Amino acid sequence: MGTNARTAEKPGSDDVERLSGGPVEARQAWFTIGDLAREFDVTLRTLRFYEDKGLLNPRREGLNRIYNRRDRARLKLVLMGKRVGFSLTEIKEVLDLYDLKDNQLTQLRVALKKFNEQIGVLEAQKRDCELALDELKTTVGQVADMIKMREKTRN
């Protein structure tokens, strides 16, 4: 009894709510390109580019683009994917699996696999960065010591 009819009708329908940041009923259903640009701090050109790449699919009213909650959730996923190092092609591959008629199981499995792989990539990059920082800090210390020694001999 705790599930609503919409959730019982379509498994995974709560995913849009989770990905778009809260209960869908509490927010508007449609967004303009300006609304999304402001909310996610991206340019209009960026949103048009994502549309050209097939990542977003707003409906048109004349010359205006009208985005729905699904587009908003997709944009949020695109931006998260870019932030963690995925290419737009990789992001599109995962997003395009949403429309398979398997309750998004394929999409979720592929996403989980890609996310775990990317975690490995990012952890390796983090280790490389930590090594580079340690090396740079050591070099800074050595250069500072060299400056002190030269200043002493100069005086």
Keywords:
155 residues; mainly alpha; Multidrug-efflux Transporter Regulator, Chain: A, Domain 2; three-stranded antiparallel β-sheet; 7 helices; disordered N terminus; DNA binding; MerR family DNA-binding transcriptional regulator; coiled coil
Task: Give a structural overview.
Helix 5 runs antiparallel to helix 6. Mean pLDDT is 86; it is low at 1-11. This protein has a three-stranded antiparallel sheet. The termini are far apart. It has helices at 5-9, 14-20, 33-40, 44-52, 69-83, 88-96, 105-154, and strands at residues 30-32, 59-61, 64-68. By secondary structure, the protein is mostly helical. It comes from Prosthecodimorpha staleyi. Residues 1-21 are annotated as: Disordered. Keywords: Coiled coil, DNA-binding. GO terms for molecular function: DNA binding; DNA-binding transcription factor activity.
Highest-level CATH class of the largest domain: Mainly Alpha
CATH fold-level topology of the largest domain:
Multidrug-efflux Transporter Regulator, Chain: A, Domain 2
- Counting DSSP H or I runs of 4 or more residues, the number of helices is 7
Helix and strand run: HHEHHEEHHH
Report the major sheet: 3 strands, antiparallel
As a percent range, the share of helical residues equals 55-70%
Distance between the termini: 85 Å
Mean pLDDT: 86
How many DSSP-defined strands?
3
Principal-axes shape call: elongated
Write a compact overview of the structure shown.
With 155 residues, the chain is mainly alpha-helical. Helices cover 66% and strands 7% of the residues.
